[in-house]
């Protein structure tokens, strides 16, 4: 059973997940600091210096306190984290798509001298045919 667990734990997906969780936790701390130390104070200035974390309501009965400000702060933290992750994923998907397009877009083959000459002859014949049609059309009109 220990061998099975070791085999499971050492699979690539489990290690990738563990690394993702660790990086996500560190990223979450950065975003929380961004929200608490930069965004919320600036937002507080614009809305009159209100600090969301201190907002509360004490009902007239009982001694309980409803800390709705902390809830607002937590929701705001979540929205900032979710938006940051969305932007990061969007950025990475754009890079991946661009790289895939570069790899899949084949360069047009270079034309050799024979092909260039044949293309030139074709264009001249089309032009000549169009000129003769125009002359025939004018003769029928007059």
Automatic annotation (TrEMBL):
Q: Where are the transmembrane segments?
A: 12-31, 65-89
Please name the HAMAP family in this protein's record: MscL
* Quaternary structure, from the entry: Homopentamer.
Q: Which residue spans adopt a coiled-coil conformation according to this UniProt entry?
A: none
Q: List the PROSITE patterns.
A: MSCL
Q: Which organism is it from?
A: Cytobacillus stercorigallinarum
**Which Gene3D superfamilies does this entry report, sorted A to Z?**
Large-conductance mechanosensitive channel, MscL, domain 1
Q: Which UniProt keywords apply?
A: Cell membrane, Ion channel, Ion transport, Membrane, Transmembrane, Transmembrane helix, Transport
> Which subcellular locations apply to this protein?
Cell membrane
Query: What is the protein name stated in its UniProt record?
Result: Large-conductance mechanosensitive channel
Record-linked Pfam families: MscL (PF01741)
Topology of the protein relative to the lipid bilayer:
Multi-pass membrane protein
């Amino acid at each position: 059973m220990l061998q099975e667990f070791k085999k499971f734990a050492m699979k690539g997906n489990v290690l990738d997940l563990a690394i993702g969780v660790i990086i996500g936790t560190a990223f979450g701390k950065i975003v929380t600091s961004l929200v608490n130390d930069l965004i919320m104070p600036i937002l507080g200035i614009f809305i009159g210096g209100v600090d969301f974390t201190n907002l509360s309501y004490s009902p007239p009965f009982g001694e309980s306190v409803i800390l709705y400000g902390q809830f607002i702060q937590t929701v705001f933290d979540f929205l900032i984290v979710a938006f940051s992750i969305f932007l990061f994923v969007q950025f990475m998907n754009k890079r991946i798509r661009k790289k895939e397009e570069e790899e899949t877009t084949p360069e047009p083959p270079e034309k050799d001298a024979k092909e260039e000459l044949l293309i030139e002859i074709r264009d001249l014949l089309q032009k000549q045919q169009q000129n003769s049609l125009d002359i025939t059309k004018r003769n029928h009109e007059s």
